[in-house]
Amino acid sequence: MKIILLGPPGAGKGTQAASIREKYGIPHISTGDIFRENVRLGSPLGVEARKYMDAGQLVPDNLVVSMVADRLEKPDCVRGFLLDGFPRTLPQAEALDSYLTSKGTVLDGVILLDVDDETVVLRLSGRRVCRACGQIYHSTFKPSRSGNRCEVCGGETYQRDDDTEKVIRNRLTVYHQQTTPLISFYKEKGILRAVDAKASSGNVMNAIESLCANRS
Ligand code: AMP
Question: Could you tell me the pTM of the whole model?
């Protein structure tokens, strides 16, 4: 299965991806997570990416595309992958298409998680993430029972630098300007499936399951 999860920040892509990875045994490739890991390690890519990330801007296409192409070469991608946060611009989508064509393969589907801006702001401004295991909490809707510690592994929970309201609104503007053109791009290819991401998370799994059923 080669799937893209498309949608604004805060649509729940990371949460959904975790269940998909578990159920289908395909790697979850989140470009945001790879950048954050590079920032944490202080790698040259991380230092460069951070300038954009902290402002809620997109990292330049050439950096993202080569990073994703490297990741897709890893052996765990032979049975497929789930892309989360990539592509985010038309040039990225075109680069992904060319890459897959060069490997003699195509995408199985693109799942669009649909959610309105105000819901995104509410979700992201309360989001807390465990530094150690990545478990996601919400200060109001899903607080950790262990306070500032993760209830799964005891790690420290924190608010991402780009989850403040000002930066969230910037990220939404960037999404509407640069990423929404991908909706028509994939619609025209006949592989887009839109799911209401405000409703139950089961909807997304149903969409994936029907994608799988249509393949076999
Ligand atoms: P995310 O966790 O997916 O919200 O990504 C966090 C930040 O990483 C974004 O706001 C961008 O600065 C950067 N980023 C992640 N994926 C991409 C991408 N495909 N293209 C450009 N920048 C990206």
Answer: 0.87
